[in-house]
Amino acid sequence: MTIAATRRGAPDSKAPGRKATGREAMESTTADGAAAVPDGTVRHLRIGALALESGSTLPDVTLAYETWGTLNADASNAVLIEHALTGDTHVTRGAGEEPGWWEQLAGSGAPVDTDRYFVVSINILGGCYGSTGPSTPAPDGRPWGSRFPLVTLRDSTAAEARLADALGIGSWYAVLGGSLGGARALEWAVSYPERVRRCAVISVGASSTAEQIAFAQAQTLAIRQDPNFNGGDYYGGPEPHAGLALARRIAHITYRSAAELDGRFGRNPQAAEAPLEAGSLAGRGRYQVESYLDHQGNKLVRRFDANSYIAITDALMSHDVSRGRGSLERALARATAEFFVAAVDSDRLYFPAQSRELADALPGDVPVHVIEAPIGHDGFLTEIGQLSGQLRESFFG
Questions:
Q1: What is the pTM of this model?
Q2: If we measure between CA atoms, which residue out of 140, 117, 28 comes closest to residue 67?
Q3: Quick one: pLDDT at residue 35?
């Protein structure tokens, strides 16, 4: 089996067929590590055809991933860190100096110490950072676009299990993640109980609630109603940037608490703009919070694919660890892992009560660790360092 590797930075899957640049120069390594690949390098593994829960089949699936550290002789030190909705695989810096998104948690000397553990991060199936997704070529050579099938979290977990097989990892020392990443970690622990020894589920519950599905639908509809969406077949033409930016605005409001937004921006106007001094509605200036949301939307469209946003959001809508498995308690009884559950106290997307419900349904006495952060849901990223002591004591001592 051959694994393709790129220098840091995922290939531009939104431009199918584009030649690799020097930054993305291709090299090869075998699955047994015959060729050394620097830590924090994006690699790509072809796992073959994948049958999906929907009844469809994705042929010739590729998963992008990064690794840090060294897998030990008995493959007992492998840790899987799952990214959130628009995240990528760059959890922490590697051979280069590009910072990762969870450096308080993973890296040399961090709780998930890359000098001690073999850390793996996988781009979710349907994503746009190197894994098979709507922007990648279908068998006919054209981007999948509107033809890309529904992929559930169980489907993506099955795909990741094949990657683990290829790396020689029979079971994970630990699987952990926050938000969507936490849902992915939980699905691993229940779908493959014999392969997960420890599981950390942060800032997410056992299923997506009706309210969370409602917020998600508003986001995907914002994209679909962009005139450039073209039913999902926009590759090679204008892209639905306005719709994707609007989806990000809607999402970002749920990622931050009311206190955070009010404390940072209040009712202040943006610089010289005057929200109350416009001669027409079209000429109204913005409040600071509006400018902030515009900035967040514009940032995302420069790095993310709109179809992947829909595909991954739909996967998150599918999140229900007890679906088809009886009651929540019965479903979780399948898991044999030691669990670590945590919530952000100000989270208004995945309320702490959902984490408590999950912990109460797990076998044994599982406490809920609390991140105290006024920021809201995003505290699972920005304030994960608060859990360093508990994670070292529970999992990574």
A1: 0.92
A2: 117
A3: 57
